[in-house]
Automatic annotation (TrEMBL), chains A, B:
Its EC number is 2.7.1.2. This is Glucokinase. It comes from Hypnocyclicus thermotrophus. PANTHER family: BIFUNCTIONAL UDP-N-ACETYLGLUCOSAMINE 2-EPIMERASE_N-ACETYLMANNOSAMINE KINASE, ROK (REPRESSOR, ORF, KINASE) FAMILY. GO terms for cellular component: cytoplasm. The keyword Coiled coil does not apply. Belongs to the ROK (NagC/XylR) family. GO terms for biological process: glycolytic process. Keywords: ATP-binding, Kinase, Nucleotide-binding, Transferase. The lineage of its organism: Bacteria, Fusobacteriati, Fusobacteriota, Fusobacteriia, Fusobacteriales. SUPFAM superfamilies: Actin-like ATPase domain.
Length: 318, 318
């Protein structure tokens, strides 16, 4: 009888592995180690396998009780096994990572893109549990996304499904970190919102936000902007309105394409809560067809810090 | 042994039914009658069932040789059976059309949105045969779309999946027939392209296009614009560039969201051929991430006038 599933969140700096209870989606135990990708693929996955074996021993879990391991990585993944390229690691292209880890771990392994699996985790045991058509958004440094259609993750032909942060909301608009212009994340990610605030603060410092950051632009975080706006600072609320308008534009476009039943929003920007999302919902009717707005729910992500591990584990579950 | 499948294309004015050979996707026989939706649902489907029985008799095909009937309709469809509302007919909401026709026809029936099933048909036996991740676009009066992921049609939660003509490419941009602003089809459909030409012709009549339409704005069709541009008319080529830029912007956004392996483009505007699509492809690298452009093919639709019937039949096949 399977009772557990392993989830691994492979990041540029750290890799976090956890043992997840299949019935509840709760993390029983987890631990992080340095990724040290420069030591090579074999070395990294040897250490990951050792880490998992150590966690299993610690909890007296036999491998016969483990269904398998899911792995979320920062890069495009195809067939739930092959990473076409690693954005941040000096590893070769088209590596069958599932096979590499399966041999070391002696368990079935499935691999997914890290942004995609976060949505999968929310659909398995989080805010979208029980829903079959889910759009997940993570509003952080960038905008990540994941799409679940009829319970299945949309990987995409080259593993780049749901790169929604790079849909263009302005032709030849603001420069994005990807090198292209007008990307959604250049407007509505934490980075995009901070950029807009910096631009505005250059011409107007007579506002609460400027005081909140101690008149030091380097202290500025998205949270300051939302906090000042909630305290009635018109200057800051205008910036929130700017972000909300682009959030509605991007979400509206995705509603018209995918017509999901629920949108799960996570990441730092989502912590602004209803203050932000009430504004987004108000704007949405301008951009989404009414038929795609019917009955759709916009909810906050639930998995928090465990999202990467639980999401990776979900690769084995749905 | 099943050898045939019925396809029905239900339009506002006419309904066309055809018998399709399962092995080849070819239409063996087809016939159109008036829809006359004002006579009511029962009357319309009685006449459709009679039409199909007549076609089967004509070809001496027994119902035991027919797998079932697919029906494409202009409206949102859920569970391949229920039409949530009819855009053009005075029929009630949430009708289980599959059940209504099944009883009359004594064959299994599946229902799909008309724009969606065109893509399904191309994936079954047309330009996208053999592909599992397909985006279909029909550039005509509007822009219709269909999305196939892992061989399955994306219906959407309320049946409005792939309403891609209404993604917004300009916030608060040009007014669209849907009542919203900035929709893709307000720029790159035949209607959108003609509108742009009309606007430009009001201020400049010193061009080949004006001569081609016999100095009569009412004669203007999209074809005139493409023809004049191909003959070297700079005024007309600028309009084509305008349409191509918005086509690339819309297609680029869909590539970043869906990462399909093939895009099938049909409809009147697609007849402009490589002259238009070479321009679109050139612009695409500004809007689509390079990973979503890798290996993707953009091809012309193949099913032509049979697209509606063959697409509807495909509902039973994939």
């Amino acid at each position: 009888m399977n009772k557990y599933v392993v989830g691994i969140d492979l990041g540029g700096t750290n890799v976090k592995a956890g043992i997840v209870d299949e019935a509840t989606g709760k993390v029983v135990v987890s631990k992080s180690i340095k990724t040290n990708s420069e030591k090579g693929v074999e070395d990294t996955f040897d250490r990951i396998a050792n880490l998992i074996n150590e966690l299993l021993n610690e909890k007296n879990i036999d491998k016969s009780e483990v269904k398998g391991a899911g792995l979320g990585i920062p890069g495009p993944v195809i067939n739930f096994e092959t990473v076409t390229f690693f954005a941040n690691f000096p590893w070769e292209r088209n590596l069958n990572i599932a096979k590499i880890l399966e041999e070391k771990l002696e368990l079935p392994v499935k691999v997914g893109n890290d942004a995609n699996v976060i949505t999968l985790g929310e659909a398995w045991m989080g805010a979208a549990k029980g829903y079959k058509n889910v759009l997940g958004l993570t509003l952080g440094t960038g905008i990540g996304g994941g799409i679940v259609v009829e319970g299945k993750l949309v990987e995409g032909f080259t593993g780049a499904g749901a790169e929604v942060g790079h849909i263009k909301l302005e032709a030849d608009g603001r420069l994005c970190g990807c090198g292209q212009k007008g990307c959604w994340e250049a407007y509505s990610s934490a980075t995009g919102i901070i950029r807009e605030a910096v631009l505005r603060l250059r011409v107007n410092k007579n506002n609460l936000l400027w005081e909140k950051i101690n008149r030091n632009i380097n202290e500025l975080e998205a949270k300051h902007i939302f906090d000042a706006a909630k305290e009635g600072d018109k200057f800051s609320e205008d910036i929130v309105d700017f972000a909300a308008r682009y959030l509605a534009l991007g979400i509206g476009n995705l509603l018209n394409v995918l017509n999901p039943e629920v949108i799960v929003v996570g990441g730092g920007v989502a912590l602004a809560g209803d203050f932000l999302f009430d504004k987004v919902k108000k704007e949405l009717s301008k951009y989404a067809l009414s038929v795609t707005l019917e009955g759709v729910e916009i909810v906050q992500a639930k998995l928090g810090n465990d999202a990467g591990v639980v999401g990776a584990a979900a690769l084995l579950e749905i």
